[in-house]
Structure formats: structure tokens, C-alpha cells
């Protein structure tokens, strides 16, 4: 076995005690809504995963988006990245997960960054905590971002107790809740929109198309982060936003990636290019699994991998250690 130093916590800590029904109970774990016992998100306005025979044809093995790169290589090589000598103390990263596919991609990307820049099988310590996404859907649909923030704060506390020194949340939409006022989070974190906007500015972008959930596209997070750097944020038309959002919730978060959905996204990006955009920000964590740079008519800003690279830099001391603990304080405006 390799000595990859990763503690990978999924949903509950193993110090929990049985509740007498064969399940594990965490006293800090938010209770599921009364109508969400089977986690069928159709009760919260999102269709559940359809039976296999009703799902659209998936991409062939040749076209399936690659997550794991060739051995010893990273999927994306940021322009600023370079090999580093491991410092005496590398900071322990906590990943605050809020959706499955995107959190998995973030975990892989962070580890791969270490393999490429530190050497085979090496990366800073990383812990992932995940309270199931379905538990927050009722609050999202109700626009209750304060309740979502409280749920996310539980994960940050658990990451802190597991030894993490800072956190990232590879879910763009979750930052609508994380930016809400409230008690300081238990750990400092990197803000995903700040990282994406920094890269857009380094690239000299002036108008960036924003693709994500309807919450993200229509929300203030990216107009603020890009606007603070003099970059315009452009979103698709209402009908196109509905298509993007439907594909995310019906397919991408369930690990379904189809050629038809890829084609639909490419057409939307083409229309953003015609409207003067000089890049497109893929700011739903799962979109980069569907749209690789070679598929896009515009240069892409892959929020997932940009955040993972920034987290690596913070962990090894190549960028300032983060100080943001939720809310609006400390964010560019």
C-alpha cells in the first residue's frame, strides 16, 4: 500500500454511537426534513435519479470525461504551477463537500496536484466531510440560505476537529450561503469565486460568461467577485439557464454525462461568445466533467481545479494563508 496521507470522512465521524436502529448518529448532524427520509429529491422540486432504462444514453468510453489522468500527470496544469520542495510543515486541508461528483473531483484534483508537484504519492494531508446534499434541497428551494449556512458550518466544525487547518468548498452555489452573515466559521477558507476571478484577471479577461446552477447564475457571488476586478459577468438567457440547471440536477450531480447535454452546453457557450464574452467560467463543480477545454468555443475557467490548485499553494506556503471565515468581510467588492 502507498502511504497517501489522507483521512477521508464521508458524512459521519466514526466516533459516533449507534442509535439502536442499525444507523450511526452524530449529535451535531442536522436532522433530515420529515419528508426527506428516502432522500428522493423530487419531493424538493428536483427529479430523483431515473431508472437505468429511462436514462439518456451516456457517452461512450472514448467520450466519457476523464477524471484520472495518465500516471504521474495532472488533468490541468495551471500556468503558475511549479514543482516545490515539501516544506517542513504542510497545512492540512479540509474539503467541505456539498455535492458528490464535484467534491470527488476536487479531492482527486488536489491529490493529483501534489503528485505532480511534490512527487509520486505525496500531497498535503486532506480530510473531506459531507453532509448529504439532499438534506439542504428544501432550504435551497425556499431561498433559506441561513439554514444552509448552519448545515455547512457543522461540516467546518467537524473538519476542524479532524485536524484540518483551513477549508475549501468546491460547490459554487454553497457560497451564496457561506457569504451570509453569521458566526465566524471554525476554520479560515479560500473563497471559490475569488480564486476564479483572480485567474480571470491574470488572463486579462474583460467579459466572462457564467455557467452554473440557476442559483449561482442569478445570484450575486460572481458579479461581485468579477466586478471587483473590472470584469463583466454575462449569464445565458432565461431559457438557456433553465436547460443548464436541469442538466445539472437531473444528470451531472448523479454522475450522468451525455453527448446531447454536452452539445447543448456548447451551443450556449457559442452564443455567449457571440455576445462578446472572452472566456466562460464553469462554476458548477460538475460542469468540467462534461465540458473539457477542447470542447468549449471559449477559454474555460474551471472553478474546481483552480480552487484545488489554490488550496495546494496555500497548503505549501506559495500563497497567503486564507483568513476568510464566512460572511462578506474580507471579500473583494
Describe the structure.
The protein has 333 residues and is of the alpha/beta class. The strands form three sheets. Strands 1-5-4-6-7 form a five-stranded parallel beta sheet, sandwiched between helices. It is built from eleven helices and eleven strands. The N and C termini lie far apart (47 Å).
Strand and helix layout:
Blueprint (H helix, E strand, L loop, with lengths): L5 E3 L8 E2 L5 E2 L67 E5 L2 H19 L7 E5 L6 H5 L3 H17 L4 E3 L5 H5 L10 E2 L1 H11 L4 E5 L2 H5 L2 H7 L4 E3 L3 H13 L8 H16 L4 E4 L4 H4 L9 E3 H14 L17
Parallel strand pairs: 1-5, 4-5, 4-6, 6-7, 8-9, 8-10, 10-11
Antiparallel strand pairs: 2-3
Q: Identify the strand order in the major beta sheet.
A: 1-5-4-6-7
The number of distinct helices, counting runs of at least 4 residues, comes to 11
Q: How far apart are the termini?
A: 47 Å
Helix fraction by DSSP (H/I, runs of at least 4): 25-40%
H-E string: EEEEHEHHEHEHEHHEHHEHEH
Low-confidence stretches: 1-80
Sheet with the most strands?
5 strands, parallel
Strand residue content: 5-15%
Work out the number of β strands: 11
What class do helices, strands and sheet pairing give?
Answer: alpha/beta
Q: Mean pLDDT, as a whole number?
A: 79
Oligomer: single chain
Cα-based radius of gyration, to the nearest Å: 19 Å
What would you call the shape?
globular
